[in-house]
Amino acid sequence: MTTTAKKWLERIHALPLEGVTKIMNVCGGHERSITMAGLRKVLPDEIELVPGPGCPVCICPEEDVFEAIQLALNEDIILIAFGDMLRVPVNVSKTRARTLEQAKAAGADIRPIATPREAVDIAAQNPDKAVVFFAAGFETTTAPVASMLVQGVPKNLFILLSGRLTWPAVAMLLDSGQAAFQTLIAPGHVATVMGPEEWQFVPEEHKMPAAVAGFSPESLLAAMYSVLRQRVEGKAFLDNCYPELVRAGGNPTAQAQLKTSMDVVDANWRGIGVIPQSGFALSEAYAQHNARKQFPSYAEDARKRAGEMPPGCDCAKVVLGQIYPDQCRLYANACVPRNPVGPCMVSDEGACRIWWSGGVRKNAVS
Predict the structure, then answer these.
(1) CATH code where residue 103 lies
(2) CA atoms of 228 and 23, how far apart (whole Å)
(3) pLDDT digit string, tens, across residues 156-173
(4) What is the pLDDT of residues 30-44, one digit of tens each?
(5) How many Cα atoms within 13 Å fall on the side-chain side of residue 2?
(6) How many angstroms separate the CA atoms of 308 and 271, rounded?
(7) Total domain count for the chain?
(8) Helix 139-151 vs helix 252-261: angle between axes, to the nearest 10 degrees?
(9) How many whole angstroms separate alpha carbon 130 and alpha carbon 183?
(10) Residue 130 covered by a domain
(11) Domain limits at 73?
Protein backbone atom coordinates (compact mmCIF):
# COMPACT_ATOMS: atom_id res chain seq x y z
CA MET A 1 0.00 0.00 0.00
CA THR A 2 1.29 3.46 -0.90
CA THR A 3 2.39 5.53 2.09
CA THR A 4 0.60 8.89 2.20
CA ALA A 5 2.26 12.26 2.66
CA LYS A 6 0.64 12.47 6.10
CA LYS A 7 2.22 9.17 7.16
CA TRP A 8 5.67 10.28 5.95
CA LEU A 9 5.28 13.51 7.91
CA GLU A 10 4.36 11.55 11.03
CA ARG A 11 7.49 9.41 10.60
CA ILE A 12 9.67 12.48 10.10
CA HIS A 13 8.25 14.17 13.23
CA ALA A 14 8.89 10.98 15.21
CA LEU A 15 12.62 10.97 14.42
CA PRO A 16 14.91 11.96 17.33
CA LEU A 17 16.53 14.88 15.51
CA GLU A 18 19.37 16.72 17.21
CA GLY A 19 20.23 20.20 16.00
CA VAL A 20 19.47 21.58 12.57
CA THR A 21 19.78 19.37 9.48
CA LYS A 22 19.98 21.07 6.09
CA ILE A 23 18.72 19.05 3.14
CA MET A 24 19.73 20.28 -0.31
CA ASN A 25 17.44 19.51 -3.22
CA VAL A 26 19.31 19.69 -6.52
CA CYS A 27 16.32 19.98 -8.84
CA GLY A 28 14.29 23.08 -9.67
CA GLY A 29 11.26 20.85 -10.07
CA HIS A 30 11.76 19.59 -6.53
CA GLU A 31 11.97 23.15 -5.22
CA ARG A 32 8.75 24.04 -7.03
CA SER A 33 6.93 21.01 -5.58
CA ILE A 34 8.27 21.70 -2.07
CA THR A 35 7.22 25.35 -2.19
CA MET A 36 3.82 24.90 -3.80
CA ALA A 37 2.92 22.05 -1.43
CA GLY A 38 4.00 24.16 1.56
CA LEU A 39 6.28 21.42 2.89
CA ARG A 40 8.57 23.83 4.73
CA LYS A 41 5.63 24.90 6.91
CA VAL A 42 4.80 21.37 8.10
CA LEU A 43 8.28 19.99 8.76
CA PRO A 44 9.97 20.11 12.19
CA ASP A 45 11.89 23.30 12.97
CA GLU A 46 15.12 21.27 12.98
CA ILE A 47 14.88 20.74 9.20
CA GLU A 48 15.91 23.31 6.62
CA LEU A 49 15.32 22.69 2.92
CA VAL A 50 18.00 24.33 0.78
CA PRO A 51 17.46 24.96 -2.97
CA GLY A 52 20.49 23.92 -5.01
CA PRO A 53 21.92 24.19 -8.55
CA GLY A 54 18.85 22.80 -10.29
CA CYS A 55 18.01 25.56 -12.75
CA PRO A 56 19.73 25.32 -16.17
CA VAL A 57 18.50 28.76 -17.18
CA CYS A 58 20.07 30.25 -14.06
CA ILE A 59 23.56 28.87 -14.71
CA CYS A 60 23.66 29.23 -18.51
CA PRO A 61 26.81 31.33 -19.03
CA GLU A 62 26.37 34.93 -19.99
CA GLU A 63 28.64 34.54 -23.02
CA ASP A 64 26.31 31.89 -24.46
CA VAL A 65 23.21 34.08 -24.06
CA PHE A 66 25.14 37.04 -25.50
CA GLU A 67 26.27 34.96 -28.48
CA ALA A 68 22.69 33.83 -29.17
CA ILE A 69 21.50 37.46 -29.08
CA GLN A 70 24.24 38.59 -31.46
CA LEU A 71 23.67 35.71 -33.89
CA ALA A 72 19.98 36.56 -34.04
CA LEU A 73 20.66 40.26 -34.62
CA ASN A 74 23.55 39.99 -37.08
CA GLU A 75 22.96 36.83 -39.13
CA ASP A 76 20.15 35.98 -41.52
CA ILE A 77 18.74 33.20 -39.35
CA ILE A 78 15.75 32.03 -37.37
CA LEU A 79 16.86 31.57 -33.77
CA ILE A 80 14.81 29.28 -31.55
CA ALA A 81 15.14 28.59 -27.85
CA PHE A 82 13.18 27.22 -24.94
CA GLY A 83 10.78 29.89 -23.70
CA ASP A 84 12.52 30.71 -20.41
CA MET A 85 15.74 31.63 -22.20
CA LEU A 86 14.14 34.59 -23.96
CA ARG A 87 14.08 36.72 -20.80
CA VAL A 88 17.53 35.93 -19.36
CA PRO A 89 19.48 39.21 -19.14
CA VAL A 90 23.13 39.87 -19.96
CA ASN A 91 25.29 42.78 -18.82
CA VAL A 92 25.31 45.32 -21.64
CA SER A 93 24.49 49.00 -21.89
CA LYS A 94 20.85 50.05 -21.95
CA THR A 95 21.17 50.96 -25.62
CA ARG A 96 21.76 47.29 -26.58
CA ALA A 97 19.52 44.25 -26.42
CA ARG A 98 19.90 42.66 -22.99
CA THR A 99 17.71 39.63 -23.71
CA LEU A 100 16.56 37.53 -26.63
CA GLU A 101 13.13 39.03 -26.04
CA GLN A 102 14.54 42.53 -26.60
CA ALA A 103 16.44 41.30 -29.67
CA LYS A 104 13.13 39.96 -31.03
CA ALA A 105 11.53 43.35 -30.43
CA ALA A 106 14.43 44.90 -32.36
CA GLY A 107 13.55 42.82 -35.42
CA ALA A 108 15.39 39.52 -34.99
CA ASP A 109 13.45 36.37 -35.94
CA ILE A 110 13.40 34.61 -32.57
CA ARG A 111 10.86 31.95 -31.70
CA PRO A 112 10.20 30.13 -28.41
CA ILE A 113 9.75 26.37 -28.49
CA ALA A 114 8.90 23.71 -25.92
CA THR A 115 10.47 20.58 -27.46
CA PRO A 116 13.35 19.73 -29.84
CA ARG A 117 10.77 18.27 -32.22
CA GLU A 118 9.59 21.81 -32.89
CA ALA A 119 13.13 22.75 -33.95
CA VAL A 120 13.07 20.06 -36.62
CA ASP A 121 9.63 21.17 -37.79
CA ILE A 122 10.64 24.84 -38.08
CA ALA A 123 13.77 23.92 -40.05
CA ALA A 124 11.75 21.68 -42.38
CA GLN A 125 9.19 24.45 -42.92
CA ASN A 126 11.94 26.96 -43.78
CA PRO A 127 14.36 25.01 -46.01
CA ASP A 128 15.94 28.17 -47.47
CA LYS A 129 16.70 29.68 -44.08
CA ALA A 130 19.32 28.76 -41.50
CA VAL A 131 17.71 27.81 -38.19
CA VAL A 132 19.80 27.98 -35.01
CA PHE A 133 18.55 26.12 -31.95
CA PHE A 134 19.98 27.66 -28.75
CA ALA A 135 19.78 24.48 -26.65
CA ALA A 136 20.40 25.14 -22.96
CA GLY A 137 19.58 22.59 -20.29
CA PHE A 138 20.63 19.72 -18.06
CA GLU A 139 20.73 16.03 -18.96
CA THR A 140 16.96 15.60 -19.26
CA THR A 141 16.80 18.40 -21.83
CA THR A 142 20.06 17.59 -23.60
CA ALA A 143 19.22 13.91 -24.09
CA PRO A 144 16.28 14.70 -26.45
CA VAL A 145 18.58 17.03 -28.41
CA ALA A 146 21.05 14.16 -28.78
CA SER A 147 18.25 11.84 -29.88
CA MET A 148 17.11 14.39 -32.44
CA LEU A 149 20.62 14.62 -33.91
CA VAL A 150 21.18 10.85 -34.03
CA GLN A 151 17.86 10.31 -35.77
CA GLY A 152 18.77 12.95 -38.37
CA VAL A 153 17.89 16.61 -38.79
CA PRO A 154 17.49 18.97 -41.78
CA LYS A 155 20.72 20.37 -43.21
CA ASN A 156 19.69 23.90 -42.31
CA LEU A 157 19.33 23.18 -38.57
CA PHE A 158 22.27 24.17 -36.37
CA ILE A 159 22.75 23.77 -32.62
CA LEU A 160 24.16 26.41 -30.28
CA LEU A 161 24.63 24.03 -27.38
CA SER A 162 24.80 25.06 -23.74
CA GLY A 163 24.16 21.71 -22.04
CA ARG A 164 25.32 20.89 -18.52
CA LEU A 165 25.58 17.83 -16.28
CA THR A 166 24.07 18.16 -12.82
CA TRP A 167 26.27 16.08 -10.54
CA PRO A 168 29.61 17.89 -11.09
CA ALA A 169 28.24 21.04 -9.44
CA VAL A 170 27.34 19.07 -6.33
CA ALA A 171 30.72 17.34 -6.42
CA MET A 172 32.41 20.75 -6.57
CA LEU A 173 30.46 21.93 -3.53
CA LEU A 174 31.30 18.81 -1.55
CA ASP A 175 34.95 18.80 -2.58
CA SER A 176 35.29 22.43 -1.46
CA GLY A 177 34.56 21.44 2.13
CA GLN A 178 32.20 24.40 2.37
CA ALA A 179 28.91 22.71 1.52
CA ALA A 180 26.11 24.31 3.56
CA PHE A 181 24.07 21.10 3.83
CA GLN A 182 24.34 17.71 5.52
CA THR A 183 22.08 15.56 3.33
CA LEU A 184 21.12 15.50 -0.34
CA ILE A 185 18.02 14.82 -2.43
CA ALA A 186 19.10 13.93 -5.98
CA PRO A 187 16.98 14.77 -9.07
CA GLY A 188 14.63 12.03 -10.18
CA HIS A 189 14.39 12.92 -13.88
CA VAL A 190 18.17 13.10 -14.26
CA ALA A 191 18.48 9.72 -12.56
CA THR A 192 15.84 8.33 -14.93
CA VAL A 193 18.11 9.16 -17.87
CA MET A 194 21.61 8.80 -16.44
CA GLY A 195 20.95 6.23 -13.71
CA PRO A 196 20.99 6.70 -9.93
CA GLU A 197 24.58 5.43 -9.82
CA GLU A 198 25.82 8.93 -10.76
CA TRP A 199 25.00 10.01 -7.21
CA GLN A 200 26.73 7.14 -5.45
CA PHE A 201 29.77 9.36 -4.87
CA VAL A 202 27.81 11.38 -2.29
CA PRO A 203 27.58 8.63 0.35
CA GLU A 204 30.70 6.75 -0.74
CA GLU A 205 33.16 9.62 -0.96
CA HIS A 206 31.60 12.14 1.40
CA LYS A 207 29.72 9.90 3.85
CA MET A 208 26.61 11.99 3.27
CA PRO A 209 23.07 10.52 3.25
CA ALA A 210 21.41 10.79 -0.15
CA ALA A 211 18.14 9.80 -1.81
CA VAL A 212 16.66 10.10 -5.30
CA ALA A 213 13.17 11.62 -5.28
CA GLY A 214 10.32 12.20 -7.65
CA PHE A 215 8.11 15.27 -7.69
CA SER A 216 5.10 14.33 -5.60
CA PRO A 217 4.95 15.32 -1.92
CA GLU A 218 4.93 11.61 -1.07
CA SER A 219 8.19 10.90 -2.93
CA LEU A 220 9.89 14.02 -1.60
CA LEU A 221 8.86 13.32 1.99
CA ALA A 222 9.98 9.69 1.62
CA ALA A 223 13.40 10.93 0.49
CA MET A 224 13.55 13.41 3.36
CA TYR A 225 12.68 10.69 5.84
CA SER A 226 15.33 8.43 4.35
CA VAL A 227 18.19 10.93 4.57
CA LEU A 228 17.12 12.09 8.05
CA ARG A 229 16.91 8.53 9.33
CA GLN A 230 20.31 7.78 7.82
CA ARG A 231 21.72 10.79 9.67
CA VAL A 232 20.09 9.79 12.97
CA GLU A 233 21.45 6.24 12.64
CA GLY A 234 24.91 7.36 11.52
CA LYS A 235 24.58 5.75 8.09
CA ALA A 236 25.15 7.01 4.56
CA PHE A 237 23.83 5.32 1.44
CA LEU A 238 21.90 6.19 -1.73
CA ASP A 239 18.19 5.40 -1.46
CA ASN A 240 15.89 5.27 -4.50
CA CYS A 241 12.61 6.88 -3.48
CA TYR A 242 11.41 7.15 -7.08
CA PRO A 243 11.29 3.47 -8.13
CA GLU A 244 8.34 4.07 -10.45
CA LEU A 245 10.69 5.62 -13.04
CA VAL A 246 14.27 5.36 -11.78
CA ARG A 247 15.96 2.08 -12.60
CA ALA A 248 19.52 0.87 -12.13
CA GLY A 249 21.58 1.94 -15.12
CA GLY A 250 19.08 4.58 -16.24
CA ASN A 251 18.11 4.78 -19.91
CA PRO A 252 20.85 3.09 -21.97
CA THR A 253 19.43 4.30 -25.29
CA ALA A 254 19.49 7.94 -24.21
CA GLN A 255 23.00 7.53 -22.81
CA ALA A 256 24.21 5.95 -26.06
CA GLN A 257 22.76 8.82 -28.09
CA LEU A 258 24.45 11.37 -25.83
CA LYS A 259 27.76 9.54 -26.20
CA THR A 260 27.40 9.33 -29.98
CA SER A 261 26.60 12.99 -30.60
CA MET A 262 28.32 14.81 -27.75
CA ASP A 263 31.53 15.05 -25.76
CA VAL A 264 31.79 15.86 -22.06
CA VAL A 265 33.97 18.94 -21.54
CA ASP A 266 34.94 21.50 -18.90
CA ALA A 267 32.23 24.17 -18.83
CA ASN A 268 31.50 27.59 -17.39
CA TRP A 269 28.54 28.08 -15.04
CA ARG A 270 27.19 31.59 -14.74
CA GLY A 271 28.35 33.26 -11.55
CA ILE A 272 30.25 30.14 -10.47
CA GLY A 273 33.05 29.59 -12.96
CA VAL A 274 34.43 26.60 -14.82
CA ILE A 275 33.51 23.19 -13.41
CA PRO A 276 35.57 20.30 -14.83
CA GLN A 277 33.75 17.80 -17.05
CA SER A 278 30.39 19.44 -16.44
CA GLY A 279 29.30 20.40 -19.96
CA PHE A 280 28.19 18.87 -23.25
CA ALA A 281 29.70 19.87 -26.60
CA LEU A 282 28.78 18.54 -30.03
CA SER A 283 31.18 15.88 -31.24
CA GLU A 284 33.17 16.28 -34.45
CA ALA A 285 30.83 13.82 -36.14
CA TYR A 286 28.12 16.50 -35.91
CA ALA A 287 30.29 19.52 -36.70
CA GLN A 288 28.12 20.33 -39.73
CA HIS A 289 25.28 21.12 -37.29
CA ASN A 290 27.43 23.03 -34.78
CA ALA A 291 26.46 26.71 -34.90
CA ARG A 292 29.79 27.68 -33.35
CA LYS A 293 31.61 26.13 -36.31
CA GLN A 294 29.24 27.26 -39.04
CA PHE A 295 28.72 30.93 -38.11
CA PRO A 296 31.04 33.82 -37.21
CA SER A 297 31.92 33.94 -33.51
CA TYR A 298 30.26 36.60 -31.41
CA ALA A 299 31.74 35.27 -28.19
CA GLU A 300 33.53 37.78 -26.01
CA ASP A 301 36.27 36.35 -23.80
CA ALA A 302 35.74 39.18 -21.32
CA ARG A 303 32.38 37.64 -20.47
CA LYS A 304 33.92 34.29 -19.48
CA ARG A 305 34.39 35.04 -15.83
CA ALA A 306 32.91 33.98 -12.52
CA GLY A 307 30.68 36.51 -10.80
CA GLU A 308 29.22 38.07 -13.94
CA MET A 309 25.79 38.49 -12.43
CA PRO A 310 24.35 42.02 -12.62
CA PRO A 311 25.50 44.41 -9.85
CA GLY A 312 23.93 43.53 -6.52
CA CYS A 313 22.52 40.21 -7.80
CA ASP A 314 23.23 37.20 -5.58
CA CYS A 315 21.88 34.51 -7.93
CA ALA A 316 25.16 32.57 -7.76
CA LYS A 317 24.89 32.28 -3.96
CA VAL A 318 21.28 31.15 -4.30
CA VAL A 319 22.24 28.50 -6.88
CA LEU A 320 25.01 27.20 -4.62
CA GLY A 321 22.67 26.97 -1.63
CA GLN A 322 24.68 29.55 0.32
CA ILE A 323 21.70 31.87 0.87
CA TYR A 324 17.94 31.61 0.48
CA PRO A 325 16.26 33.55 -2.35
CA ASP A 326 14.81 36.23 -0.09
CA GLN A 327 18.29 36.90 1.29
CA CYS A 328 19.48 38.24 -2.07
CA ARG A 329 19.94 41.99 -1.84
CA LEU A 330 17.70 42.60 -4.85
CA TYR A 331 14.92 40.10 -4.14
CA ALA A 332 11.51 41.84 -4.02
CA ASN A 333 13.28 45.16 -4.33
CA ALA A 334 14.73 45.81 -7.79
CA CYS A 335 14.23 42.17 -8.86
CA VAL A 336 10.68 40.92 -9.40
CA PRO A 337 9.19 38.61 -12.08
CA ARG A 338 7.94 41.44 -14.26
CA ASN A 339 11.43 43.01 -14.20
CA PRO A 340 13.96 40.25 -13.40
CA VAL A 341 17.51 41.41 -12.75
CA GLY A 342 19.03 37.98 -12.27
CA PRO A 343 18.29 34.67 -14.01
CA CYS A 344 16.92 33.01 -10.85
CA MET A 345 13.86 35.28 -11.09
CA VAL A 346 13.30 34.41 -14.77
CA SER A 347 12.79 30.68 -14.98
CA ASP A 348 9.98 28.58 -13.53
CA GLU A 349 12.83 26.41 -12.16
CA GLY A 350 14.68 29.36 -10.61
CA ALA A 351 14.46 29.39 -6.81
CA CYS A 352 13.72 33.14 -6.66
CA ARG A 353 10.84 32.88 -9.12
CA ILE A 354 9.49 29.83 -7.28
CA TRP A 355 9.61 31.55 -3.89
CA TRP A 356 7.88 34.62 -5.33
CA SER A 357 5.17 32.43 -6.87
CA GLY A 358 4.87 30.69 -3.51
CA GLY A 359 4.00 33.98 -1.80
CA VAL A 360 7.36 35.18 -0.44
CA ARG A 361 7.13 38.86 -1.43
CA LYS A 362 9.46 40.50 1.12
CA ASN A 363 13.23 40.76 1.36
CA ALA A 364 14.56 39.11 4.52
CA VAL A 365 17.64 41.30 4.87
CA SER A 366 16.52 44.82 3.98
Answers:
(1) 3.40.50.11740
(2) 9
(3) 999 999 999 999 999 999
(4) 999 999 999 999 999
(5) 11
(6) 5
(7) 1
(8) 70
(9) 47
(10) yes
(11) 61-165+262-303
